[in-house]
Design brief:
2 copies of one chain form a homodimer. By secondary structure, chain A is an alpha+beta fold. Helix content of chain A is 50%, strand content 11%. Chain A has 9 helices and 4 strands.
Chain lengths: 225, 225
């Protein structure tokens, strides 16, 4: 397979709405920038607490800002999402183990990881459905196109020690890059590496890679959502 | 004077390098977007602690990121700056009182506030000169084009109670907008208002105002620095 030499690793957790924006933009630019995009499902509380950071939502002013910011950003990025009325941070541990198990199982490519992650974000940030229970993960998996048998296998695998360890090790990998929150994007181009935090550095990332940023809709750059 | 109905208030402190980026970009876009740009010199520790936030630089991982981020951003934005070797947060209280006094004194326009603020940022973030002492502020004022007499007057005024109160009240104004750090940009367009934090929301701000973002160099959009 032809390699462009541009490897972009996206560390994310479906708990993070900004990660969803970054995920969709990188999926749209994958062929435009000819990048080797690697999904790195990880666990947000692991990097927040592991880096000595504090969840942004704990500060009332920041929380007010995030709600306002996400409203406009999601419209501009064309990724409809709505603030859940209940902002308590429901655990995404089971969901991220489920995605990790799928990533381990999916030998070729990452189409299924992409689809399942998107379904989980949709449930959490658009339709406000549960993603903590096995029945919810099953529903997301089926909607993403997995067969009932595969969902069952992935669910079972997601509870195994190797998968628990894998999620921990990917989270640790992020911490080794000095990650303190998601999305965290590690960009490697011709031997140079640069990390980018958040969903607001794509223009800078393009500059770093010698590519062009055409806004969040590269295939219809003049469109306004 | 013709008003476009687009008022953009920039709350800043020369302690903040990201504010410098926002300041230069907004100055470049002032005529391009036809905005009524208002400088709001304020005091960073006042909004950090007043909002219950923590200085980003206190977290080692965030600090590492900020250094890397600013290096690339300052190159891309064409605002050369270099991390001082001594990162201890020297107080900018005198400097911001000096700018506040100048803003109060400058009845028409804000050309001098713009020039003096830029000189102070240059000293702090490019040449790493002191900005805490009267002699340093005098030097910055003279370099910005103030006469020796005016500098003397502004220095004296900057120590007066009304100026101390004015800096406090602008900082308080920022807090009332739920500000938690700088740059903090309040954008008012045809009765709608939106706040933007950081120097990475200009594309979104343009979308909000119905304007076009052409990168950090609107007058030479194809240039790469």
């Amino acid at each position: 397979m032809f390699s462009s030499g541009k490897v972009v690793q996206l560390f994310y957790d479906v708990a993070s709405p900004y990660s969803w924006l970054a995920f969709e933009v990188l999926c749209r630019y994958r062929n435009v920038w000819n990048i080797d995009l690697k999904f790195k499902p990880a666990f947000l509380p692991g990097v927040i607490y592991g880096s000595g950071n504090q969840p942004a939502g704990m500060n009332p002013s920041k929380l007010t800002y995030i709600v306002s910011d996400l409203t406009l950003l999601s419209e501009y990025f064309g990724v409809p999402m709505f603030q859940p009325s209940d902002l308590s941070d429901k655990d995404t541990l089971s969901a991220m183990r489920f995605v990790t198990a799928l990533a381990e199982k999916e030998k070729e490519g990452d189409m299924l990881v992409e689809r399942v992650s998107r379904e989980l974000w949709k449930r959490k940030w658009r339709t406000h459905q549960d993603i903590t229970q096995p029945a919810s993960l099953t529903e997301a998996g089926l909607k993403a196109g997995l067969s009932a048998n595969v969902v069952k296998e992935i669910l079972s695998l997601s509870k195994s020690q190797p998968i628990k360890d894998k999620l921990k090790s990917v989270t640790q990998e992020a911490l080794e890059y000095k990650c303190f929150g998601f999305p965290f994007i590690v960009c490697q181009v011709n031997g140079k590496a640069k990390v980018f935090f958040g969903s607001d550095r794509f223009e800078l990332m393009a500059y770093f890679m010698g590519e062009k940023w055409m806004g969040p809709h590269p295939n219809k750059p003049t469109a306004h959502m």
